[in-house]
Design brief:
Elements (H helix, E strand, L loop, with lengths): L1 H15 L14 E4 L3 E2 L6 H18 L4 E3 L1 H16 L3 H15 L3 E10 L2 E10 L5 E9 L4 H13 L2 H11 L8 E7 L11 E9 L10 E4 L6 E4 L14 E4 L5 E8 L8 E11 L3 E11 L1 E8 L3 E2 L4 E11 L5 E3 L6 E3 L8 E4 L16 E7 L5 E9 L16 E9 L3 E20 L2 E20 L4 E25 L6 E26 L4 E3 L2 E3 L10 E15 L5 E11 L15 H4 L11 H18 L11 E4 L2 E21 L2 E21 L1
Parallel strand pairs: 1-3, 1-4, 2-4, 16-23
Antiparallel strand pairs: 4-5, 5-6, 7-8, 8-12, 9-11, 9-13, 10-12, 13-14, 15-17, 17-18, 17-21, 19-22, 20-21, 22-23, 24-25, 24-34, 25-26, 26-27, 27-30, 28-29, 30-31, 32-33, 33-34
């Protein structure tokens, strides 16, 4: 009999199974899950109970195509697919499948079945439960005299339910919370908050509507309690719901709205910006719908601008102050009629501040209608940096403890007091190149040379004493390839005495030389007053630079002896450039490599090499043969207390041809030299 019932159920399921139809309106179809059948009689096996469960699910699907019905077999199939993916090593898709499965199985309603017997009577008890509210919304109990009659009992119960979709719709109309597929609309009024004028709170209003567009009364809305710039309170206070523990909760009224109050926390800053409040409400199926409230914050600012930030002792200057509210879009709103505080505690005793406008009874300045205040600062005799603190205390309401504790807006006016002085600068950049060839009789020379030179100096000069201090740096780099060939005397071991032999000599030389001066003290040498203006000496710059860096070299010389014998000497290394020098002048700065090589004694191992490098440097300087026709250190007035001189030079020199003829031999030279210079001299009276 039991096997016969199982076969009948399987055949019935195969004959009647259909796919659920799509919902007719925009609301999602209710989802119903068949819970495993509870068997309470030894006359019925669990397998029969499971088959009866699937039959019930198919019967409900056929009778209610607009609903989503999940039977025991459907749930097992969904979970089994994800488990198989995990077993096959597809961890990513398996895990995602389990998450999706949990979401798809989660139902809004449960159907429980209990099958048992009382004597010879078989009973089928069915209950439909609202999973969100825990209500039993429908019950039915059917009796039959045989196990085969359980199928008829299922058909009877499904027929008695009738249109389950309409039944659920009617039930949800009577129990609107939690809503089906709700939407949240959020508004903020006032539209922004600010620390000023007790406008540090705003009301957040949330309207909850279900999928039909109807407002939903009596449903809970949760608000984030603490935000980046503030806090939120509701009449419902903190939620004790586990999923939203510590959030603020409010319940929608008959109009479907819930409200919360946002409080700007000025201890977290009073600058312009925006804050965000997270909002959550529950929907059917124990799911959440999220929204956000955007809270624009208008900051309060003080803008302080001294008319002069450097003045002489006992002089005065105005300080312009503006107080305004700044929106997140950059719009400024002046704050007039506000009292400012001036903190002069950091000023010397003989310096002070005078308010140039209305004050309160305590002598504190009051902003004009355009939010401005003018102060006059009178300097003392001491040369120093004077710092004046300006404060404004907005009316920020109360803090979390309920005590009026405004956070001040502050700004500083910084004015340096020092005697008249000049600040002079030299900004010098140049580069050049030389290609040179010379031949006569057996002699041949070739130079291929490029260099870069930069210099920047800053001199501060007190006008009264003439005392100067100068800081500066220069850099010089070159790239030189040198080749020569000819004949020379050679002490050969193959014969007595000396013999004349041909030779070839090759050098590659690279120099990187730097010079620095720090607070070098002079008197009237780097900046002079001349012809009612200022003059910076540039021929050469009068201050010696301490030098660092060095010259890399690699060279060889080959002597070609008779009998095809050759002797080659070669070497490479680095010689340190250490000699302090003065720079600048009308000619190119090509001699720096040689000028910065210290003098060495005749017995020094590097004597010959050092002298050779010096001679090469001097020879290059001689062959450049270009000069700066514009060089001058005389400055012209370019503005109030501003003097400047700028120029640029591009010179070139070339020669290609014979030089002379002697003893039937003609000397020839080919030379191209180029020279570019950019110079800016400047001085400013402080």
């Amino acid at each position: 009999m039991k096997r016969y019932l199982i076969l009948i159920l399987i055949l019935a399921m195969a004959a009647t199974a259909v796919l659920p139809a799509a919902a007719a309106d925009e609301c999602p179809a209710p989802k119903i899950r068949m819970m495993p059948t509870k068997v309470t009689s030894d006359l019925i096996t669990q397998g029969q109970g499971d088959s009866l469960n699937d039959y019930y699910a198919n019967s409900l699907r056929n009778a209610n195509p607009a609903l989503k019905i999940l039977g025991k077999t459907d749930v097992a199939a969904v979970l089994n697919l994800s488990n198989q993916q995990l077993l096959l090593g597809d961890d990513i898709n398996g895990s995602r499948g389990l998450e999706a499965s949990a979401s798809s199985i989660g139902a809004e309603y449960l159907v429980t079945l209990t099958v048992g017997t009382v004597g010879s009577v078989y009973q089928l008890h069915m209950t439909i439960i609202d999973t969100d509210l825990g209500n039993a919304i429908y019950r039915d109990n059917t009796e039959t005299t045989s196990v085969r009659g359980l199928l008829d009992a299922v058909d009877t119960q499904v027929a008695k339910i009738g249109d389950l979709s309409a039944f659920i719709e009617s039930y949800e109309a009577a129990h609107p919370a939690p809503p089906r597929a709700p939407s949240l609309s959020v508004s903020v009024q006032p539209e922004s908050v600010t620390p000023e004028n007790s406008r540090d709170t705003t009301t957040i209003t949330v309207t909850v509507r279900n999928c039909k567009g109807d407002v939903v009364p009596g449903t809970k809305v949760y608000f984030e309690s603490v935000t980046a710039r503030g806090r939120v309170t509701t009449e419902g206070g903190e939620s004790e719901d586990v999923a939203h523990w510590g959030w603020q909760v409010a319940t929608t009224g008959t109009d479907g709205t819930a409200r919360a109050t946002y409080h700007l926390d000025t201890k977290k800053g009073i600058t312009a910006g925006q804050d965000t409040v997270d909002i959550v409400t529950e929907e059917r199926g124990q799911k959440n719908v999220h929204a956000k409230a955007e809270i624009p914050i208008n900051g309060v600012y003080l803008e302080v601008i001294p008319q002069k930030d450097v003045i002489a002792p006992k002089q005065a200057t105005d300080i312009y102050i503006s107080l305004f509210e700044l929106s997140g879009t950059g719009e400024k709103t002046p704050l007039g009629g506000k009292v400012l505080s001036i903190d002069e505690s950091r000023l010397p005793n003989d310096a002070g501040v005078v308010v140039m406008g209305p004050t309160d009874s305590g002598g504190n300045p009051i902003t004009a209608a355009d939010g401005t205040v003018v102060l006059k600062f009178v300097a003392g005799e001491e040369e120093r940096l004077n710092r004046i603190r300006i404060l404004y205390y907005p009316d920020t309401g109360t803090n979390d403890d309920g005590v009026n504790s405004p956070v001040p807006v502050e700004a500083w006016a910084e004015i340096e007091v020092k005697a008249d002085e000049y600040v002079a600068t030299v900004n010098w950049r140049e580069s050049g190149s030389l290609d040179y060839e010379y031949s006569w009789q057996y002699d041949y020379y070739q130079w291929d040379y490029e260099y870069d030179f930069t210099l920047f100096t800053k001199t501060q000069k007190e006008k009264n004493t003439g005392q100067e201090t100068t800081d500066g740096t220069f850099t010089y780099t070159n790239d030189l390839s040198y080749y020569t060939e000819g004949r020379t005397m050679f002490d050969t071991p193959f014969s007595t005495g000396y013999t004349i032999v041909p030779f070839e000599e090759q050098w590659d030389i690279n120099a990187d030389v730097k010079g620095t001066i720090n607070r070098y003290e002079t008197i009237n040498t780097a900046l002079e007053e001349r012809l009612s203006t200022l003059f910076i000496p540039v021929t050469p710059f009068p201050i010696p630079f301490e030098v660092s860096g060095g010259t890399e070299y690699e060279g060889s010389i080959t002597y070609k002896l008779s009998g095809e014998n050759e002797i080659t000497d070669s070497g490479d290394g680095r010689i340190t450039n250490t000699k302090a020098i003065r720079v600048l002048g009308s000619g190119p700065q090509t001699g720096i490599m040689g000028d910065t090589l210290a003098r060495v004694s005749d017995e020094d191992p590097n004597y010959s090499l050092t002298m050779m490098l010096k001679r090469m440097s001097a020879a290059i300087d001689e062959h450049m043969e270009v000069r700066d026709p514009l060089i001058t250190g005389l400055l012209t007035k370019a503005g109030e207390n501003v003097y400047a001189k700028r120029w640029s030079v591009h010179e070139s020199n070339s020669y290609h041809g014979d030089l002379f003829t002697w003893l039937s031999s003609t000397a020839r030279m080919d030379m191209d030299a180029e020279f570019t210079r950019e110079v800016t001299l400047g001085a400013v009276k402080q």
